[in-house]
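Why does residue order matter? Because the sequence determines the fold. Keep that principle in mind as you read this record.
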Amino acid sequence: MNSRTAQNGDTAFSQTRFQIIESAFHLFAKQGYHATAMRQIARNAGVLTSNVYNYFNSKGAIYQTVLKQHHPWLAFREELTARYSGSATVSTFDLLQFLAGKWQQNPDGLRLHLVELLEFQGQHIAMIYNRLQRMIASFISCQRTKDISISQEVEQCSAFTVALFYLLMFDQCLKQVERQTTSRKTMVDLKTLLKLWNGDAFSATSHNRLSHAR
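Structure:
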């Protein structure tokens, strides 16, 4: 195999892997993890089901990759690169405000977080939060001209980011409630929000897990 053929092969491998990840992301967000079959992921990616296993050894491995690439907290990394690369000083508030706008444009990212909370009981949240903290530490370090401790500032910025995310997610869910009900006395619990946000299919798959969680 010559170098040109190898390069083309690498490109095809990367493109197929990307298609599988994107297919899984939107399916997980739309209908949940447990309701999504490998054959659906393969079909939406335009590959054979058997071919998916050339890239991932299980659906769980795909899910963890989807989290690392699409969880909304980790958009911090993308926005630092895209918007603030080379900038000497950036307001943390400005960055969080920009992130909030990105989150609003990505409802599938919000749904993915609900999948993590409801179907996995948040077992991957610590991993995601640690990644977020490393991004924030790198960001804050680049903004400092003196060698000072930044651990407290990282903790505060991380907490602000997560708090902002949950406020935005709750606001989006309430807007769904307002659109789909005329009752002023609607009892809004987690299952109701999930049903209104994702539709009956995903709500049905999560019903048993919600019951056990209560």
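Confidence is low (pLDDT under 50) at residues 1-9, 182-190, 199-214.
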